[in-house]
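Troubleshooting: if your tokenizer reports a length mismatch, compare your output against this known-good record of 382 residues.
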Amino acid sequence: MSLSVQPVRTRRDWSDFFGLRRAIYKNDAAFVYPLRSMERKMIDSKKHPFYQHAEIQAFNCFRGKTLVGRIAAIRDHLHNDYYQDQLGFFGFFECMDDSDVSRCLMDSASNWLRDHGCDRVRGPVNPSMKEEFGILIEGFDIPPMVMMSYSRPYYDRLVTEYGFVKVMDFYAYLFDRNNVDQKQKFDMEQESLYAAARKILERYPELEVRDCKKSEIPDMLGEINKLANVVRDDEWGFVPLTDAELNYMIQHVRHVVRPDLFLTVYWSGRLVGYCVNIPDVNTALHRTWGKSDWVRFPQLLYQLRRIDRTRLVAVGVDPEFRSRGVAPLLSIEMRRRGLADPSLGKWEFSWIAENNHKSIRNMQRTIPVRKYKVYRLYEKSL
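Known-good structure output:
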């Protein structure tokens, strides 16, 4: 039966687009179904601030009348202005295990990007590297944490068959309190690391580690974002987070964040380092059942109180202060204040680019972690 790819325009088209994942992941115990409202917001060009500087065109692929794949072509003008290039992206890719289907989807996205002036395509991103991105290469047995992507094992093959090549891998590391070896190493190193933190503070009395109150989180995130746009400027694929995107993010995490999982370091009143952890909302979502948000949302409110995993989503040190002990101080204090919390059994540290050897080395010096997931981005010339 022949294949047809159609641009997504109508409400029915969008219903098909969002409904496909239930068919693809129906037998996958590790997949976490988002609330339908959450999924729609990621691609809503009228409400999501990402689309203030980007444009998108989604496509559905049918075999006869059966939906068998979906994709979106994305052009981020902020990215291209920042890097002075003409890069396009593909995202929201879902597909049955069929090379003909994936080729039709990729053709449609590539043609749209080419028609809009792009000369290369990178992905997948949903809708950018500020949210979910990458195809999962390792770690299919454990559900993804908040704002982490998940995909079928055959997606890597479908993408590379089309001519995409790996451009960068990103790692996720896990500290598991229930892992005996990790816990023993954590306990053995505890006193020596705390002594190291005291020495840093004695050597640099200008340094101050501060706690955060919940009412202070919006202002704190604004201050952190200003520093992050400096700290991450040399990171691969970085694009600044706009004020509108920051405010949007704050609105969507304010009900679940824990102020005790925010850590900041100041030098004479100036912010010079930060760690931001977010409780793993996916743990709560994974414990709900039903297709309707009206059925799942009340369950989610209950399950949010039982979250036992968290994810480190951001860490950074002002470049001017990297030689003054801020990075190890952050790691040690995060270990002391957060990792010691017995209610949190698992901590994920992600994403970390494979070429970010310094961050990986600094983390492994203070926290007994293991690499347990690998995500891959691909690129292809148009």
